[in-house]
Amino acid sequence: MLCKLLASTSCPFFTTMKRLHLFRRSFNCELWRKSPQTCAQHTLSASPNKSLEFDLPSAVERPSRTLSTLTPSLLTESDYVDLSGSCVMAISFPLSTVRFPKPSTPIPSPRPHLPAAAAFRLYYEHRNHRFMPFPTHSHGFLYFGPQPGLPNLPIAASLRFRCTPTAHPSSFDDGYDLLLPNGLPWQRLLAQAAMAVSPVLRKQLLLEQLTTPHLLRSWRQRLGLSNTSKAGSRRLHTSQMLFRLQQRFPIDFGRSVKLMIITRSKVYRILIPDTFVDRFEGRKRHPFTGSAIAHFEHSPSAKHILHLRIVKLLQPVAVSDALPDGQPRGGSRIVWPREGELFSVRIWDRQSESWLAGEEPWAINLRGADTHHAKALRLLAFPRGMPPQQPAPLKAVPRRCALCVNNRCRQRLVCPGRGGQKLCSCGHPPMGKGSKTRIPEAKLIAYFEKQDRRQAGMSGLPPTTADEKLTTKDNLGKTRRCALCVKNLCRKRLDCPGKGGHKFCLCGHPPMEKGEKARTSEADLVAYFEEQDRITGM
């Protein structure tokens, strides 16, 4: 109501503020599309009060350069440009025509429609609504070519600036590409030329045959633009555009990961949520602050699993101020990011209800996930399609001799026997028809370890449990002996495969009668043989 009342009256304060507001809009919006003199003339002509005067700073005036070519092999000394300290520079070419209106031409409307400019703006970085100046020693040649590492991908070509030690084109190979403050290359992608309102750069690329109309149309189709629509309001962040999986991009530990995935047929704008997020007091918060350069990489165990590696820290990692007081660092799901290592998270322990169960690398499963960002990353990592899933490897089962297993022989893994007596090199008798070895390997190993401990004289062993008793025909606590040799007091009782039948006794002892058994204990036999040895020795 107050504004309407002031507008309906001839209030000098309101009139002055209105004129200042018109000047600000005209100055900010039309500054780079018109010359500073035209901007000031239009603002003053629209104001009835001629007493207002404005002093335009000298820094507003844009420097300009005319280049002959963007092809590296055709550069001359006249193409040498010094961008040090400049915020914005207007670049034109010999065939570019000036299409600005003259300053003396009256402009009746407050926001006139001007034709496209005859030069394109060249700036270093746009941050916080301001153009940042080029760093020192930014002198060299502007050129257009394929990206390093992607020579066979014309759609990834870009406009870059080569800093050279001298103004001679022969020093082009001795120079280096201009870098941004985060360490990534300064470049203007072909997509920006396809979207730009000014056709100067686009026409020059077509004139020098550095690109084709088909590539420009394909870029506009990927970006969802028609041939007549304008995309000047859209801004492409070149550092967030990924053409290959190992390409580096900036990340902020206090924000979500936003990327543009460039595929053969489409551009995917993805958002990977909750990457650096943890829950505190029922709310999602970022436990750390800072920024870094990172890239995706395949997991060594499976190609369809992606990890995130932190290549370089741009800003030091610190604990966020948004965390509640007294929250320990170890209580966060996010592991403290470290340069050169994989970004990791902690595992939740249900018993202690804390993140103390261990650490594991942060991962995205491209095969199982069906989200929008997983689909885009899947097309980026596997442009020809996902490889078929490999079957799970079978568990390695040790090859064992069945006869040796049943006879608790330590040579079970070396002996080539499989149940037949001919293949068993240990001389064990063959198994009966239909009998199988059912002793697990783990129980055999436990039995042999216990026997070794007992032979070593270790005391205090617990009694043998039911699980340690192997379910075989013979009791493992007894010694296998030939009954005929025991009856005849033969020293080969432990080596002879006989079990009471005359056919299996290699010593030739006569068979026992039906129902007869050898009941001599092993201790008595050992004592008997020792006594015989003493008598023989005497």
What tags apply to this protein structure?
single chain; alpha+beta; 5 domains; five-stranded antiparallel sheet; four-stranded antiparallel sheet; 21 strands; disordered N terminus
Q: If you had to describe this structure to a student in words, what would you say it looks like?
A:
With 538 residues, the protein is an alpha+beta fold. It has five domains: 19-61, no CATH class; 62-236, no CATH class; 249-262 and 272-320 and 330-381, no CATH class; 420-455 and 464-478, no CATH class; 479-538, no CATH class. The chain is 21% helix and 18% strand. It has eleven helices and 21 strands. It has helices spanning 2-8, 12-30, 36-45, 190-195, 200-207, 213-222, 372-381, 402-406, 441-455, 483-487, 522-537; strands spanning 64-66, 81-82, 88-92, 120-123, 125-127, 130-132, 139-145, 158-163, 176-177, 187-189, 241-242, 249-252, 257-262, 267-272, 278-280, 283-285, 288-298, 305-319, 344-346, 359-361, 363-365. The strands form seven sheets. Strands 2, 7, 8, 9 and 10 form a five-stranded antiparallel beta sheet that branches. Helix 2 (12-30) runs antiparallel to helix 3 (36-45). The longest helix has 19 residues, at 12-30. The model is unreliable at 1-9, 25-61, 98-103, 107-117 and 466-477 (pLDDT under 50).
In total, how many beta strands?
21
In the predicted model, the low-confidence regions spanning at least 5 consecutive residues are 1-9, 25-61, 98-103, 107-117, 466-477
Task: Domain count, please report it.
Answer: 5
Task: Output the structural class.
Answer: alpha+beta
Give the biggest sheet. Answer: 5 strands, antiparallel
Approximate helicity band: 10-25%
- The best one-word shape is elongated
Strand content: 15-25%
The helix tally amounts to 11
Cα gyration radius (Å): 43 Å
Mean pLDDT: 74
Distance linking N and C termini:
135 Å
